[in-house]
Amino acid sequence: MNRSSRSGLWITVGAVALVLIWEALVRLLDVRPFVLLAPSRIVSSFADDPGFYLSDAWVTARHLVVGLAIALAIALVAGSALAAWRPFEHAAQPALVLVMVTPWVAYITSVRLVTGPGTPAAVFLVAFVTIPAFVYATVGGMRGADPAARELFSSVDASRREVLLRLRLPSALPAIFTAARFNVGLGLGAAYYAEGAAGARSGLGESGFRASALNEGPWLWTTILCAAMLGIVAQFALILTERRLLRWHQSQRRA
Fold it and tell me: Minimal CA–CA distance to 191: which of 86, 29, 49, 71?
C-alpha cells in the first residue's frame, strides 16, 4: 500500500470513528434534537428534500467563492505594496488587527445598511474578514523570496514587474494557499452568519436562521452539516489546486 492509500485509509477510519462516537453519545445521553442531532437523523432529514439543501448550499458556495476571490485580489495588491515598503506595513497593522478581532455581530447591521440585504452583505462580510490573513501571507511570502534568486534578478537588471511576477509572487504562493485553507472556514462562517442576519432570501445561513427561530432541530443541524461538507469540498479543491500549481515547490515533493 502506497503513502496516498495509507493516508486515505486513516482519514476514512477517523471519519467513521467520529460519526460512530457522535451517534453513540447522542443516543446514550438522550440529547435533545435542537442541542445536537444524531448523524443518522441528519442524513434522514437531508434525504427528505435533498434538492432544497443542495440549492441553499450552492448559494452559500457562491457567496464564499466570490468573497474569497475579492479578498485575494485586494490582498495581492495591498500585500505587494506592504512588502515593498515597511513603513506602510506598520501603518496598516491597526486596521488589519481591528478587522480580525472585531466580532461580526458588532457591525453586521451596518453592513446590511450600507450594502443592502442578502447577497451583497454576505459577499462583503466574507471578503472583509478574510483580507487580513491573505495580506499577511502575501507580505510574508514575498519577503521570504530566496536571497540568491533576488541577487540573480538584480544582476540581470530585471524590472520590478518581472521580479514581482517571476520571483516574489511565486514565493508567496505556499503561504497564500495556507491562508486560503484557514480563510475557507472563516469565510464559510461569515457567509452562513450573514445570510441569516442580513436577510438573505436563500442560502444555508438563511435556512438555519429560520430553523432556529422555529425551533426545528433537524432542519437546523442539516444546514450545519451541509455547510461543513461544503467546507470539506472546498478544502479538497484547494489541496488539489495547490498540488498542481506548486509541483515545483519543496512542500509538494514526496520522499
Answer: 71
